[in-house]
Amino acid sequence: MAAAKHITRQANNLIGGKWVRARTRHTFEDRNPANAGDLVGVFPASGAHDVADAVAAAKEAFQSWRLVPAPKRAEILFRAGELLTARKEQYARDMTREMGKVLIESRSDVQEAIDTAFYMAGEGRRLFGQTTPSELPNKFAMSVRAPVGVCGMITPWNFPMAIPSWKLFPALVCGNTCVIKPAEDTPLSALHLVETLIDAGLPKGVVNIVFGFGPEAGAPLVEHPDVTAISFTGSSEVGRWVGQTAAACMKPCSLEMGGKNAMIVMEDANLELAVEGALWGAFGTTGQRCTATSRILLHKKIARPFTQQLVERAGRLRVGDGLKKDVQMGPQVNEQQIETSRRYVEIALWEGATLLTGGKRLQGKAHAPGCFFAPTILSGVLPTMRIAQEEVFGPVVTLLQFDSLEQAIEIANSVSYGLSASIYTRDVNRGYQAMRDLETGIVYINAPTIGAEVHLPFGGVKQTGNGHREGGIGALDFYTTWKSVYVDYSDRLQRAQID
Fold it and tell me: What's the CATH number of domain 9-257+465-484, 3.40.47.10, 3.40.50.880, 3.40.605.10, 3.30.70.100?
């Protein structure tokens, strides 16, 4: 079979239903991190005026979109899910080209968008409020959900279709209009998602997409006075600014940021299963997940055999172009991420950690054109080391040891993040204790720290976020506001709390 021809996409912003060039007339390139010579697309480098145009279009469209019955809005999402299903392979291949993750993972990224479309389509008939007895006679009381208005969305590069779907689909079914600014490393996947919505029948101006970089396009979106809510997924540093800026403007803000996720392996664990989980959790998506397993906490009784198996298995992982069948781990997304991984390994060694495998950029004929970093394992790590406290966002995992479950939980909780954690044990009591005591928004039992499903809340505590959740009912709570309604049919003045 002949290799699929790679096409370079020439893209524009979508504003008010029209594809338009950026007012700046500037563009940027979207290149394959596995092969710098592969130009995936050319996209507009937008500025504040482009953002203002998109917000104005969304504001105008809101007046009619909010009046479309929710079940009808949901039908568009359902059709989008069907179209995504039909286009899954094409979109997955384009995603691997622009982001690097192996093809089976890109397919799962598109599948997550499909799952979200169908789930949120169902919510079009379940945007429930409450009815409750009034304290006064001949009076009816209820609450209803109302859309919040124009939602600004800033999305990351590691799940370039799944995460935009987490934001767009619940916002749309709730009756909001949207302006989305996707990550500059992966604009094509977000474009595919928006094109699918348009093809499914979404009216003009309901979703607008503006491409560009954070300072020039993302910041004006956060600051725009007509944007009534902001949803951001990305680094803690940028997220802190987004949260502070949104708070100053008195607008709701949902932040989903970093993680330093721990996997606890007890002495009674199924070691073979735990090693499999560690490999997937640490090196799936090249470690570029906010839920990646970045710390493995080992009971001292099993530390040696677990470490031996993990190092041997990690050393055999096939790293390369994610479009190739036999590849198990793709590149990092860009040169900056390679430098971050390299720098953290250097810091860890300076602090006294031991490098067991990896720790370097992969070069040579198979890897020279791309951003490849070897699967890396560090042992002899103490909980206070920077490598055990700070997010790397690369294929770098640390091994720490403990004596008891209580000590393991204390170590797991000793970081500033609180997104995901897991424990491997055959003891149901220990599993429930860990579930209770781990300070994270997500807990897995006998599974790694990755693998969230779309119908449950996604997010964390501490510096991982600000209390909001994506996925499930939590997303509906962010994209709606409550309105309490009282109907007095007594035909006389009744004074609450007085009469």
Answer: 3.40.605.10
